[in-house]
Amino acid sequence: MIVATYSIAACDLDAAQWGVAVQSKFLAVGSVVPWAEAHVGAIATQAYANPRYGPDGLALLRDDVPAAEVVRLLVDADDGRDERQVGVVDRHGDAASYTGTACLDWAGGRTGAGYAAQGNILVGAETVDGLADTFEATAGKPLAERLIDCLAAAQLAGGDRRGQQSASLLVVERDGGYARLSDVVVDLRVDDHSRPVEELRRLYALHDQLFGSTPRTAWLPLDGALRAEVAERLTALGFKSLDDWAGVANLELRVDGDDAIDPVVLEALRAAASDLDSPA
Length: 280
Prior knowledge:
Distance between the termini: 47 Å
Shape: elongated
CATH topology of the largest domain: Glutamine Phosphoribosylpyrophosphate, subunit 1, domain 1
Helix content: 25-40%
Radius of gyration: 21 Å
Strand order of the largest sheet: 7-8-1-2-9-10
């Protein structure tokens, strides 16, 4: 089955993050296309996808084989190369993209510093340009946000000419994931949806609320009227401490002591308490 797709494999060397974002008229595209490893690189494999490009390509990247050489080695060893499409970014931010001659129109790719953008069965080159131009224009934003913005711009430019169905976002960073014990910063998948990119953005916002971080300097002192408000809301919700409530609300990673409160936690607490007063 052809994975009619547009994707971007990219990195942010300053943040030491690598990632892939993809959208396709294909069920659960995130189970096939994106591959990434911290301080190694990122790979998107699609069209008449060869899933072995993921692990085999990462193995080459671990040995510091440059992105262009990784692509050459993968496709030269593949009898089905004419129907394949792949994008690779290595640990140095160098990128390469390949589109086989038998990929269905429109098919092609574009590379630049820190990214490889590609797509097949698209309305035209403008979809890939949307990926590339947006990535280049959003330097300084978190990589995950940039990648979602790239997908949105590509869809606005026309996207996959067969339509929309699924999307995925994968970002890795050494010890940058859950509890700083995982390299997976974000791994979100929308497997079947009429507006998968919009749904992916919604899921990412929820992910950032639960697992993101606010600089400690932006936390609010938990004293005076604010301490009284927090205590009142916790009591209304049936909890004795902020730690207890945060554990149930999956916000425990944003709570640290009782001298200050993360504004994200405060907003969520206020929303939860307000829901008690809302009519059923």
